[in-house]
Amino acid sequence: MAGANKPSGSKDSKKSKKDKGEGGVRKAEITVMLNEQQAMKVIQNSKVITVQDLARQTGVKISAANAFLKESTSKGTVKRVGGYSGHHLYQVVSS
Question: pLDDT for 4-31, tens place per residue?
């Protein structure tokens, strides 16, 4: 009887691994690419914005929003106006 219980236990563990895999698929559905027009629209409609705000409003990961803001800062379309310790505030450069 102990032998009969082992295969069923291993099937359960396989199911849990399968469930974890399905969870990974859901995570992969999160948008990684940030739509530049959408992001600029969000930034322009705000006085200032943080990386976390941009990520939440555009539906991307914080790392993607951070990369976009850093790139925009280097291009000169956005400037950092305050904040500290990784929680910086960004603002559109007025033309």
Answer: 555 555 555 455 454 555 554 444 444 4
Distance spanning both ends of the chain, measured CA to CA: 78
How far is 57 from 60, CA to CA, in rounded Å?
Answer: 8
Calpha distance 35→42 (Å, rounded) = 11
Residue 78 has pLDDT above 90, yes or no: yes
CATH node for 36-92: 1.10.10.10
Domain boundary assignment for the chain: 1-30, 36-92
- Measured CA angle at 69 (ends 63, 73), to 5 deg: 145
